[in-house]
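In the previous chapter we treated chains in isolation. Here, by contrast, the input contains two separate entities that must be folded as one system, with a combined length of 1069 residues.
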Amino acid sequence: MKLGRGDLNGAERRSAYPTDANGQTRSPAEPRRHGTEPRRGAWRGGAGPGSAGDGRSGTAERGSAQRSDVAGGGVRLPALPRPGPAALGRSDLKFNADLLASLQIFINNEWHDAISKKTFPTINPATGEVICQVAEGDKADVDKAVKAARAAFQLGSPWRRMDASHRGKLLNRLADLIERDRAYLAALETLDNGKPYSIAYLVDLDMVVKCLRYFAGWSDKFHGKTIPLDGDFFCYTRHEPVGVCGQIIPWNFPLLMQAWKLGPALATGNVVVMKVAEQTPLSALYVANLIKEAGFPPGVVNIIPGYGPTAGAAISAHMDVDKVAFTGSTEVGHLIKKAAAESNLKRVTLELGGKSPNIILSDADMDWAVDQAHFALFFNQGQCCCAGSRTYVQEDIYNEFVERSVEKAKSRVVGNPFDFKTEQGPQVDEEQFKKILGYISTGKREGAKLLCGGNPAADRGYFVQPTVFGDVQDNMTIAREEIFGPVMQIMKFKTIEEIIERANNSKYGLAAAVFTKDIDKANYVSQALRAGTVWVNCYNVFGAQAPFGGYKASGNGRELGEYGLEAYLEVKNVTMKIPQKNS
Amino acid sequence: QLQPGRQIFINNEWHDAISKKTFPTINPATGEVICQVAEGDKADVDKAVKAARAAFQLGSPWRRMDASHRGKLLNRLADLIERDRAYLAALETLDNGKPYSIAYLVDLDMVVKCLRYFAGWSDKFHGKTIPLDGDFFCYTRHEPVGVCGQIIPWNFPLLMQAWKLGPALATGNVVVMKVAEQTPLSALYVANLIKEAGFPPGVVNIIPGYGPTAGAAISAHMDVDKVAFTGSTEVGHLIKKAAAESNLKRVTLELGGKSPNIILSDADMDWAVDQAHFALFFNQGQCCCAGSRTYVQEDIYNEFVERSVEKAKSRVVGNPFDFKTEQGPQVDEEQFKKILGYISTGKREGAKLLCGGNPAADRGYFVQPTVFGDVQDNMTIAREEIFGPVMQIMKFKTIEEIIERANNSKYGLAAAVFTKDIDKANYVSQALRAGTVWVNCYNVFGAQAPFGGYKASGNGRELGEYGLEAYLEVKNVTMKIPQKNS
C-alpha cells in the first residue's frame, strides 16, 4: 500500500478497504456512526498519516476524527443518543440529580452518610451552579470502608473462594450494565466534569466498557510459574491478590480512571477502597450501584467521595491498606508515597503529571501533524496528564506549522458541552480555570508570543479560549510546568540530537511523540526518548491492551495491558521438598 | 594512602574519599581492626552518580553494547569469582565472621550461580507486540531504568552484591552501590574483577560507607532513577521516604521478617527438628528470613522442644576458619549487644530459657545457641527481629488458629510448614501471607526462584524472572499505520 499524500482519497481509497456488513465501503479504522453524522467519506483519521486530504475540512469533522483516534479507531459505535431518560429507554429514571440514590458513601454494597454528616457541593462547571450535595467522607469513613474491605478479603470469604472465571463474569456483567446505562452515565459525566457529551459518550464510555471487558478476560489467566529450582524441590509461584487496595482517582476522566483502577484490582481478586475526586463524584457513585447490581459481594468495592487532604491522606497513611494507587499531580504523588513510607510500607503505584514533548520533524505530513498536535494538546480541554504540551517543530516548517496551528485553534468550537457541535467545554472548576489564566499571564510576562486566545471564553462557567503561544523557550514556566488547560506551547528546533536532549530535559517522562515519514528517524527517536509511551505519527492513542505509565517523576508502575496486573499481585514462591527430582 | 580494594571504586578506578576520611573494618572473631577503608559520603555519591550517568548516555559503549555481550561479561565475572573463590571466601569469613566452609560452599556457590543465571537473561527480557484496537502497530520495549542505587547489607555481602548486580547489569543499567560498613572487603575485591571482566568505566561504582551519610545520599539523590535496599524495616521506611521526597525514584526493599515455621504433628520429627534448627541458626541467625517463630503442634511439642534444645547444645561455635565450626561470631559489637539485650528481655517477659543465653567466648562477638520455650505471641522476642542465634518455640492446637497467629505480624517475608498431609500443605501454604512458603524445608534459595516480602517485609521481588521487573521501565511505542491486518 502506498502512503503518499492523496493516494488514499476518493474511489481509490474506498476500493482499498473492505466492505462492511451493509455493503458500504469503509476505512478499517472508521467509526461507524448511524444516524446524524454522515461524514464517512470525508473522515480523515483512519487511513494514516498519508490520508490527510485537504486538511481544511470543518471543525466538527475534526472533532470526530479525534474521537475515533482516542477510542483506538475501528470501533463500532452505536448511534449517539440524546442525553437523558429517553436514551436509556427506562422511564423510571429521570435526568435529575435528586433521583440519584448515589450521593453518599458506598460501603458493603450499602449507602451511608458521612460519619461526620458533612456534605460538599459538586458544581456544574459550564454554569458554576451547584448540582447537588454529596456526602463528604473523611478518615472515619475510610476506616469504616477499610474494615469492610478487610472483612471481604478474609480467608474463606465468598470473594476469596470465588472461581477466578466468575470474577471475570462479574466484570463483564458490570461492563454490560454500564453499556445499558451508557447515555445516562455520559450525561452525568458531562454535567459534572464539563467534557462534551459526544466525547463522553463515544470516547470515555467506549473505553470504560472495553477496559472492564479486557480485564475480565485476565481474571483466570494471570498464571503463576513452575520453576526449575536447583535441588530436590518442587517450586512454583502463585500470584495472589495484594489485599486491600486504596485507589485515589482524578477528575479529568472520572469513569475511565475508575475502570482503569477497578479492572485489574478486581480481576486479580483484590478488594478496593476508592476515593473519587471531589470535583466529579457523580458518575463513579452511579457505577457503585451497578457494581452491586452486577453481583460483587459486599465490601469488595467501597467508594468514598471526599477531599485529598482528608480522605485521600487517610487512605495513603492507613496501616491496614496494603496498596495505594494514585492518579493525579506529581505534587500529591510525593505525599502519597511519603505517607506509604511512613506508615506500613504499602505498595505504591503512581500516574502523575507530564510535560510531554511532541516532536514534528520537517518531513512529517504537515496536515496530519497540525491536526494531531492540536488534538494532542486540546483534547479534553487540555486536561490530560499526557497532553502534548511541548510542541517542538523543526525550523524549516516552523512558520507554516505555527500559522496553521493558530488557525486550527481559532476555529475550535467552545461552548455548551451538551451541544453535539461543541469540541471544548469548560475547565473542571474555578481553581483550574484561574490557574490556567495565571499560566497564560506568566507566559506573556516571560516573553512568549501569544498568538491566539488567552482569555475566558464565556461570561459564566469556566471556559477558556483555545490559546497558542509561539516562540516559547525551554526555560519559560509554561514550557516547564503542567498547565492542564487549552494552552499550546510551540518551540523551534534544528537537529535531532538537539531535540532529543531538549525533549528529555524534564523531570517528567510520561509520554512523547514524533511525527516523521523516515523509519530510521522514527526508530532512533522513539528509542532515545525517556517516556513511558512514545507515539509515532499519532497522539493520545489508548487501548486497554497497551501499558501506560511514566518514567522519572511522572509515576511509578504501569496501568493497562498485562503489565497493569503486576501492581495488584503479590508473588508467593512455594518451595516443597520432594524425595527425588526428575526433569 | 589506602590500597586499591580499600577505596572507592568509580569509573573503574580507585579513589580516596573526597573528605579523605577512613573507617576501620573489624574482624568479629577477635574484635581487632583488619584495616582502614575509605569512607564515602554525599560528595563521593555525587561523583559516582555523575560517572554512572555518563556511562548511561545515549550512544555510550554500555548503551550500544549487544545484549548478548552483557551476558558474556556477567559470565566472565562469574568465571573470575570462581577463579578467586577461596580468596573471596576467606575475605568474607575474615570480615563477616561466617564459617569459611559455609562461605566457600554456600555463599560463593550461590554468587556464581546467580551471576550466570542473570547472564542468561541479558538477551531474553522480551518486550511484547500488542494487538491494540485501531490501525496501529503497538509494541513495548523493556528499557533499563538508568542509574540504580543499591544499598546492601552485611549478612551475605557477596551474595547480596550478586543479587543486586545480576539483574541490574543483565538489563543494561548502571549502578552506584553502597556496601555495608561492617563488611566492605569482599565486595571491593569484586570491583577489581568487574573491571577485569571488561565492564566499561562507570557502569558499576562501589562506595564503602555508612547508611546515614552515603546511603541517605543515594536515596535522596535527584539523579538516581531507582534505589534497591536490603536491610532493616526501620531503614526501609527512611529509604522509601527519601525517594518520595526527592524525585520519586523507583524503590525495591528487602526488609525484616519474623517468619513462622509451623510444625504439624504429622511431620517427620527428625527432619523437622533438623530443619527448624537450620531455619533459625543458619548464618549465626543473621537471616532476614530466619524461622524465628517456631510453632509446634501441642501433641508433639514436648518432644520437639527437648530435641531442639539437644541440637542447639551440640552446635559447634568457634573459630570460623576451623572446618568443624558451625557457628562463628555475630557481625559486630552492636549486634552482639542487641541480641544479648533481647535474651534478657525474653527472660524478663517470662519466656523459658532452655539453653544458651550468654556470650560464647572471652573475645569476639560469639553468642551461645539459645532456645526459648513457652514463648507467647505478645512477647517482644516473638514480635521483633532478633537477628541472632535465639530460637523461640511456641505451642498451637489447630490449623485455623495457627494460620491466624502466623499471619498476625507486620512482616510477611517467609514462612514454612512441615507436614506429610498434602491437603494441609496446600491449605496452609495458600493461607500464609508471605513471599516465600517452604513446605518440608527451609532456607531453600536458588537464582531461579523469586524472593521478597508481603506487608512490611518489603516491596518487590528479587531473583527469578520477577527480579528483572524492578530494573526495567516499560516503554510503549504506538505507531500509526495505514491499515491493520491480523
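Residues 1-78, 84-99 of chain A have pLDDT under 50 and may be disordered. The CA atoms of residues 28 and 119 of chain A lie 49 Å apart. Compare these points with the single-chain example from earlier in the chapter.
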